[in-house]
Design brief:
This protein has 317 residues and is of the alpha/beta class. The protein folds into two domains: 209 residues, Nucleotidyltransferase, domain 5; 107 residues, Nucleotidyltransferase, domain 5 (2-Layer Sandwich). The strands form three sheets. Strands 8-4-1-2-3-14 form a six-stranded mixed β-sheet, with helices on both faces. The radius of gyration is 20 Å and the shape is globular. The termini are close together.
């Protein structure tokens, strides 16, 4: 990406934004924008909009201009459709050499000829006695396009991350492990186990993409039980393989009107408190209630200090 001096100077000397952050969630068919404003100790969701993926850059520019968001820090989260996540042994090199050391092995494992942007997340504890990392690989052309759209909109790009990491920031840091189930409309369920702000385990639960179309009675006919089994398996792995204390809290945000009924079903199978996931300290000023917003874009905006991938604008060059 190349810009002229006039454009650069215009952005460099722009007055400070009145907004706290903008989160951008990029899914397969849609892109969601979320703007946060800080008022006292609370963060307010001031605006949210979902647009089709085609021409989303122009839609972002119009949305930014409409709400006077120019200069606001922007945090982007890609959905699973755009990247591959691999777990490999942590290379025995210095921290600043890890990405370079993984490049060839990741290229071989992904089986892709595309140039990739690579970053990683350290597992907080060894697995089977070995230090592991979760590697994320995103095609560079997709990162470059995203950087260009953010810059052209007048927002200030701060971080690019992925859905698993963004949803970690929906809960407050706790010394007790919390299992979260987060699902956007028509998507797979993202299961995370988070402790002290660190991602210990992340899984994609397939087969629940149509959860929102089922009635409460249909959920009682095996779907809720199947979901409960997947949750219990994840908890067992966390305890036995990662040698951690049992998970006692489960937070849900699923694509269904029957979250309470599903919570009750899960609670009957697993030994944990199950409740709806409502981010603390967030006030919703949009027509939709907080639990109906896109949690990936909200988590991205909340994750300024924890976002996994730091991609400056020149990455699009």
């Amino acid at each position: 990406m190349r810009i002229g001096w006039r454009t650069y100077l215009k952005q460099a000397f722009r007055k400070k934004s009145a907004y706290y952050a903008v989160g951008v969630a990029i899914s397969l068919d849609t892109v969601t924008f979320c703007a946060l404003r800080k008022q006292g100790a609370a963060l307010h969701v001031a605006h949210e909009e979902t647009v089709s993926f085609g021409q989303w850059g122009k839609a972002l520019s119009r949305w930014t201009e409409k709400h006077n968001l120019a200069g606001t820090p922007a945090y982007v989260a890609f959905s699973i459709h755009w990247y591959q996540m691999l777990q490999i042994d942590r290379p025995a090199v210095e921290a600043d050499e890890i990405v370079a050391a993984m490049t060839w092995s990741v290229k071989e494992l992904t089986g892709s000829d595309q140039e990739m942007v690579i970053d990683y997340i350290d597992l907080p504890v060894p697995l089977a006695g070995a230090a592991k990392v979760n590697v994320i690989a995103i095609p560079k052309k997709d990162v470059a396009t995203t950087c260009e759209y953010i810059f052209e909109s007048g927002l200030t790009l701060r971080h690019i991350t992925v859905e698993e990491v963004a949803t970690c920031d929906l809960i407050e840091a706790s010394s007790d492990a919390i299992l979260t189930l987060v699902q956007e409309a028509g998507e797979e369920i993202c299961l995370n186990i988070v402790k002290n702000g660190h991602l210990y385990l992340s899984r994609r639960l397939k087969g629940f993409e149509n959860l929102g179309s089922f009635t409460n009675e249909e959920l009682q006919m095996g779907i809720g039980e199947s979901l409960s089994v997947q949750v219990q398996r994840s908890m067992d792995f966390y305890e036995s393989q990662l040698r951690q204390a049992p998970v006692r809290q489960i937070k849900l945000r699923l694509d269904t009107q029957h979250t309470d009924a599903l919570a009750l079903q899960i609670n009957q199978v697993v030994n944990a408190d199950v409740s709806q996931l409502i981010p603390a300290g967030i006030v919703c000023d949009t027509p939709l209630p907080l639990h109906r917003l896109n949690y990936t874009s909200l988590g991205a905006a909340l994750g300024a200090t924890k976002a996994m991938m730091v991609v400056p604008a020149e990455a699009a060059a």
